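sry for the spam today, last one i promise. struct tokens for design, 276 residues
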């Protein structure tokens, strides 16, 4: 079964430009995203759900997970579990796996690409990260925010790239601060150590130089996932930040950047023991 089918997606799209792509270009895209290998894995683990699916992928890729600060996960899961976003797939998998194993359930704020992965659909709160979310998405998100379920989120909304002469997230969106306050959710910070390949960042820099707006490097994210095969993935979990911290001394935009700075400060020094 084809869970991911580039040719069919192009055929069903509203883009006339995409529909005019030559077959050899479509075939090239299929190879770049490792379509056959992705479909093989999704078929192999089609009966696995939630944390079982994540554990299966970790085993499939022979990943070694090194986690610092597991003791910082609170007993009450009504929190935002936030992280930097250096990898694009592996970090999302590790974040949700960790939270699922602790609390048994969660909602991960993610884009519509997760619709292609049946194993994860029940756990995804869909948003349109490149446009305006539909009224249905917004209504469902509001219910989730006000529930007691754990929520995972990457506030940058996109994978880390070169910003301010180094690889890091772009500006973090303020919505998680606003919702943390209005829904009384503490924030649990995660920091993922590592980065993607030079090719990924090179293509990003090249398209910016030539003024290409389409994020063509996103096609490389499955390749980046497979490049992590047999590697060690290390991440740090920080101490929870009480929602009451976010008072009126700063705007929500500035509070969001302070949390981002705190997450990156966990990369060195005391790590999981670092205070906000």
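last one done:
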């Amino acid at each position: 079964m084809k869970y991911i089918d580039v040719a069919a997606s192009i055929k069903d799209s509203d883009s006339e430009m995409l529909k005019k792509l030559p077959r050899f270009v479509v075939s090239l895209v299929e190879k770049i995203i490792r379509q056959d290998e992705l479909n093989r894995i999704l078929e192999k683990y089609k009966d696995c759900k939630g944390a079982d699916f994540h554990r299966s992928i970790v085993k499939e890729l022979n990943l070694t997970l090194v986690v610092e600060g597991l003791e910082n996960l609170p007993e009450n899961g009504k929190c935002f579990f936030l992280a930097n976003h250096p990898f694009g797939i592996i970090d999302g998998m590790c974040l949700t796996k960790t939270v699922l194993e602790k609390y048994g359930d969660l909602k991960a704020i993610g884009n519509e690409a997760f619709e292609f992965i049946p194993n994860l659909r029940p756990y995804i709160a869909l948003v349109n990260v490149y446009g305006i979310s539909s009224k249905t998405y917004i209504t469902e998100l509001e219910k989730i925010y006000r529930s007691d379920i754990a929520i995972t989120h990457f506030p940058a909304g996109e994978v880390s790239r070169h910003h301010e002469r180094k690889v890091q997230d772009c500006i973090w969106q303020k919505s998680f601060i606003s919702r943390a306050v209005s829904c009384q959710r503490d924030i649990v910070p995660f920091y993922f150590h590592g980065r993607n390949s030079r090719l990924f960042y090179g293509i990003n820099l090249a398209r910016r130089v030539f003024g290409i707006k389409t994020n063509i490097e996103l096609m490389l994210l499955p390749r980046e996932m497979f490049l992590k095969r047999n590697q060690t993935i290390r991440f740090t979990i920080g101490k929870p930040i009480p929602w009451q911290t976010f008072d009126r001394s700063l705007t929500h935009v500035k509070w969001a950047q302070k949390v981002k700075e705190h997450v990156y400060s966990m990369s060195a020094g005391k790590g999981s023991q670092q205070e906000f």
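The mean pLDDT is 92. ok im logging off now
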